[in-house]
Amino acid sequence: MTFLDQMKKRRSIYSIGKNVKLDQAEIEQIIKDAVKFSPSSFNSQTSRVVILFGQSHDTFWHIVRETLRDLVSADAFEATNNKINAFAAGYGTALFYEDQDVVKSMQEQFALYADNFPVWSEHSSAIAQFATWTALAEVNIGASLQHYNPIIDEEVARTFDIPPSWKLRAQLVFGSIEAPAGEKTFIDDAERFKTFT
Ligand SMILES: Cc1cc2nc3c(=O)[nH]c(=O)nc-3n(C[C@H](O)[C@H](O)[C@H](O)COP(=O)(O)O)c2cc1C
C-alpha cells in the first residue's frame, strides 16, 4: 500500500472493541515511532504522549464520565454515557500533550519567532496525532479523535502524574474495528485547490 492508500484507510471508527491482534508492546512502539518521526518546528519535539491500556484506559474513561455527569443535564447524560461506553469498549487511549516549558524555551531562544511557537506546537501535535491515527489504521486498529480537554485535565494530571507543563490537546481512542466508518463526502476540488503553471 502506498502512503496515500494508508491515508485513505484511516477513518474515524466509533465502533471499537478489544479484539486486537497486536500486543500492547507492539502498539506502544507504533505510537512512539509515529510521534518520534513526526516533524516539529526547529525539531523542538514538543509533543508528549501518554499511552493507556487495560485498567488505566478504564480509569481515564471513568474520569471523563464522572466529569461530564457533573456538567451535563440528566436528560443529555444518557447519550453522553452511551458515547463514553463506546470509547471505553476500546483497547486503549493515547493522550496527546504539548510541553509548554519547551514552547517557552523556544520563544526565549528565538525571540523573532516568539508568537509562532505556540501555533507551531499545535501544528506539531496535529501532525503527530494524524501520523499515529494513520499508523494504527495500517495495522487495522480503528480510532477516533476526542477532545474532552480542558474539563478533564486536572483530574487526569493527578491520576497519571502528568507534569504541570504538559497541556492536553487531544485523545485518540483505539481498538479493533467492530463496524466500518460511515460514509464520507468531499467538497469539490475546485473549491479547495488552485494550480498555476
Ligand atoms: C482537528 C480535529 C478535531 C476533531 N475532533 C473530533 C472530536 O472531538 N470528536 C470526534 O468524534 N471526532 C473528531 N474529529 C474527527 C472528524 O470529525 C473526522 O475526522 C471527519 O469527520 C472526517 O472523517 P474521517 O476521520 O472518517 O476521515 C476531529 C478531527 C480533527 C482533524
Automatic annotation (TrEMBL):
Pfam families: Nitroreductase (PF00881). It comes from the Bacteria. InterPro entries: Frm2/Hbn1 (IPR033877), Nitroreductase (IPR029479), Nitroreductase-like (IPR000415). Residues 8-175 form the Nitroreductase domain. This is Nitroreductase family protein.
